[in-house]
Structures are given as structure tokens and as C-alpha cells.
Amino acid sequence: MQYKYAKERLDYSDLASGRVFHSLPGHPAFPVRLASEIFQRCMASRETIHKNSARCTLYDPCCGAAYHLSVLAYLHREHIQEVISSDIDEKAVALAKRNLELVGIAGLDKRIAEISEMSERYGKASHQDALRSAQILRSNSFALAHTYPLKTRVFRANATDYKEIFDHIKAKSVDIVFTDVPYGQHSHWYSSEVINPLRAMLKALMNILSKSSIVAIVSDKQQKVSHENYQRIEQFQIGKRRVVILKPT
User: Fold this and answer.
1) Is the entire prediction scored with pTM above 0.70?
2) Residue 119 sits in which domain range?
3) What is the percent of the chain where pLDDT is above 90?
4) Are residues 61 and 172 in the same domain?
């Protein structure tokens, strides 16, 4: 896969999972550069197809710790007006709330205080590195936070249950869906009663998608991303991940 937008190999160490942003134990973090590339492809498709370049509402129904959403809110804040995330795992939801709090100055100040306390107590070099990163994130975010106010919401829901999702999100209000669905050894679909959970998720999303929405799904190649109410815009593979970008028909 050739990068179209995130062409440069930038130093994303300040955004590393487990440094300032919290990590979900046993779950590998989504690559920052790839997340940025996918998001920018979605925004470009939205502008090309729907002629809409306004700030978007971004949603992930399988958010995990919402690490990639938090990183996107930091890197592309000028393009995002609200980040909504949900997951069926209560522990993941709790961690997602903590990560999305770091999009705001108050959350970063709280995190800086936490890391400072750990640094003073334990004196580890890793804590010093984390503190420097947190201060850099705060400095970079300060001006943007006032120019581009951003809302965040997190709730617990089954991604395949449209009623649970619709209870929390208004109809036709989501512009970009970006989700890394369960696959591999580290995660799995919760419901064993649903024969094709990915298809069920696509159906569940229909009511909340705006007229100019774009849906990006990251999965492994064993999972088929297909539904009669969606048209595939593009597909590519990078490593073991398959990325499919769709638009509702």
C-alpha cells in the first residue's frame, strides 16, 4: 500500500500508546501513521463524492481504548467537531473515556500531574519521557483547543445492535466511521448468536449515518466487508490488515 497523505515517516513517539495515552493490556496499539492515512482518505472521499469539507463527527463502534480516535483528534482536530466511541467491554469503555479526556487541556493537565507524581515517587526515565511528551502535547494543543472546540462521548453498546447505538446517537449525525473490528488472538466479536457480526454492524450503522458519510473498516482478510446498502470506494491491504472504505447507497 502506498501512502497518499501521511507520506512522511514522522516521529510519533510523543503519541505512543502507554506513554501519555493509555494502552489496553494485551491489545496492540493501532499504528499512528496508518490511522492518519485512513482518516485523510475518508475526508478526501467525503469531499470528492459528497462535496462536503466541513468538520466531521467521527465514530467508532468497536473503540477499545479509543487510542486511535484520541490520536486522530490530536493530529486532525481542525477537521473533527466531535468524537464518539463505544464498545461492549466495560473496561475498554472506562479506558476510552480516560484517553479521550486527553484531547482537552484539562485532561492533559490532570495527566501531567499524574505523571509528575509517578516521576517523583519512582524516578524512572520512562516517566520523565512521558512527562516531556505530555507537556509537548499540551503546548501543541493549547491554541487549537480554543480555535477548534471538540466534543467527546463514550458509551457502552454492542456494535451489532442498532437499538443500543441509536439510544445514544442521533439519526443521520455521523459523518465518518473508522473502526478496527475484532480479529486475531487479541480480540473477538462478543455475540456468538450473530452469524455475520460485521454485516450486522454495517446494518446497525445505517440509521446514524449522515448524507455525506464515509465508513472505514479495518479487519483481517478472512472477514468479508460487504452489505447491499453500501458501495465500496477503495480497498487495500497493509501487513495482516485489510482496509475497506465504503459509502452508504
Assistant:
1) yes
2) 104-149
3) 89
4) yes
